[in-house]
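Field reference: sequence -> structure
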Amino acid sequence: MKKTPFTDIHIALGAKMHEFAGYNMPIEYSGIIDEHMTVCKGVGVFDVSHMGEIWVKGPRAQAFLQRMMSNDVAALEIGKAQYSAIINDNGGVVDDIIVYHYEPEKYMLVVNASNIEKGWKWFVDHNDEFADLENSSDNMAQLAVQGPKALATLQKLTKIDLTKIPYYSFAIGSFEGSALDNVIISNTGYTGAGGFELYFYPQYGVDIWNAIFDAGEEFGIKPIGLGARDTLRLEMGFCLYGNDLDDTTTPIEAGLGWITKFTEGRDFTAREILEKQKKEGVSRKLCGFQMLEKGIPRHGYDIVNDKDEKIGTVTSGTMAPTTKTGVGLGYVKPEYTTLGTPVYIKIRDKKLKAEIVKPPFRKLD
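Structure field:
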């Protein structure tokens, strides 16, 4: 298995380790619920160095991305980030990614760890614009510092005014614990609890990790594993590739019409298919649901109606740590997607009642 710059630290701290996307990654340290609540109330640090980074550069970079992406890259200003999806010929999602407009004619794409090779191959095979592509995934590390105390923790370590980095924006500058002056500090968190992501060269990883934990000691900072990362994103209703999105699901079906821009004159992959879905509707939609009876929904469970007829499938599910109720996402037939509609989740052959609700499931302060 591959290692991140922090793998030895995770092991030394007693983390439960497991293979994820080819990497030896920490699943949990003190327990998923404890780590989840640490991020909601204080500050936690995620090693997300397994994520991929691909640079797209040159005078044809924007034209290439305009054709590859569901979102309108031309609307993206320098210093801003954009949630988007790479679309295949059938309208399915190759990957959901974040696009950073780093400099004129230079973009950084952050791709899911399990899709690095797939996404890279897709770009290389479809680079009709001859944009300059560079896969820097093995030469970049990433830490996500998340929670309401993340800003106070990180502000000790940089002269950049972090309050001036709005959501889905980033800044580049120096960071204590390294000799670097080009650390990317991004506000694009995946937890709903606020915070920042740091991108830097791997050789500075341990020093940066130590600096962050020293700065956050007064706030009870803790390392956080992938288990709590999943419960945090699910409480917010954020999609996870491989569960809620894949090559067969379209962004329109997944409720991602807001990142699918049909800008006049923009010819992106499968535009006609997606435009038709938006106009005529789809045969399934991704919805949130909350259990009304005790039970924990899991990926792959059937969703049925009161007649026990299958109407959909659970794609993500858990017991929400902040509300102590079962919640999940799933694709269901359109006629069952109205908020408040009763549905049932088949759990160990039992039909347990739930209702369609709009995420986030977390009760935000």
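Note: The chain has three domains: 7-49+140-236, 52-138, 283-365.
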